[in-house]
Structures are given as structure tokens and as C-alpha cells.
Write a structure and sequence with these properties.
The protein is α/β, with parallel strands linked by helices and 141 residues long. It has eight helices and five strands, in the order βααβααβααβαβα. The chain has helices at 8-11, 21-32, 40-47, 53-64, 73-88, 95-106, 116-124, 133-137; strands spanning 4-6, 36-39, 67-69, 110-113, 129-131. Strand 4, helix 7 (116-124) and strand 5 form a beta-alpha-beta unit.
Length: 141
Amino acid sequence: MSLFLIDTSAWLFNFPPREVPHIRDRITDLVRNNRAAVSSPILFELLHGVPTGEEFNRWCQYLSSLHQFPLTEIDWLKAAQWAQRLRSRGLKAKTVDFLIAYKAMRHRLTLLHADADFDRIARFVSLRVESCVRFARGHKP
């Protein structure tokens, strides 16, 4: 059974008003089949913008039911070194995207996303991605 690390960029299209049916249905399927995973940077990105304490607690409970891949101290160091090498080869991407991509690669997770940075990273390394960029771009909120 392969697991999917669901990036924040995909989660954002899982709910109204930005909901995209294809992305919502894919996430729902992965969660129902116990194939969905999260990592610390994704948890932070999702939780820091939650407006109320009650909603924050509900999100924490929901996300804690997914497979967890927290960043360890060594992950931070290895990811920084890995990102530095990729940047020296001309790859430009957001810092947090390098962290998430590194974690997905390290654990052989497929990264479900709607962020073109991950498609660029996947051209440089053996990162398995399921890109929803075209679905997200076609969405009109």
C-alpha cells in the first residue's frame, strides 16, 4: 500500500469556497482508504490560519488520524543540504516546498499537490508526484 503525502496546496482545494471536485474526491478517497499522510510543515501551514480554537481542535483531531511524518533534526539538516545542491543546479522553489519534497522522497511517499514548485523539483530528482495543478488552475472561486 503506497501512502500519499497531501500538501497544503491540495488541501486548500478540498473545501469551499475554493473546492475543486477532482481534488476533493481524491483526498476523500485517500483518507477513507487510510493512504493519506501529513508532515510537520503541512500541519503548520494548515493549522496556523484556523480562525477559532474549536476549529483548531477539530482540525488537530482529524489530521492526527492520518499517517504522520514529522521532521526530525536530521531531516532539517539533510533537507537543507539537498535543497542547496538543487538550488546550485538552478532550481528555484519555496523553502518549505523543499522540506516537504525531501520528506516525501525520503519515505517514498507520493506527493499529492497543486503547486508547480513540486513539479519542477520532480524534474530534478526522483520525487513521485500526483499533480493537481491543472485542476486548481482551471478553478474559478
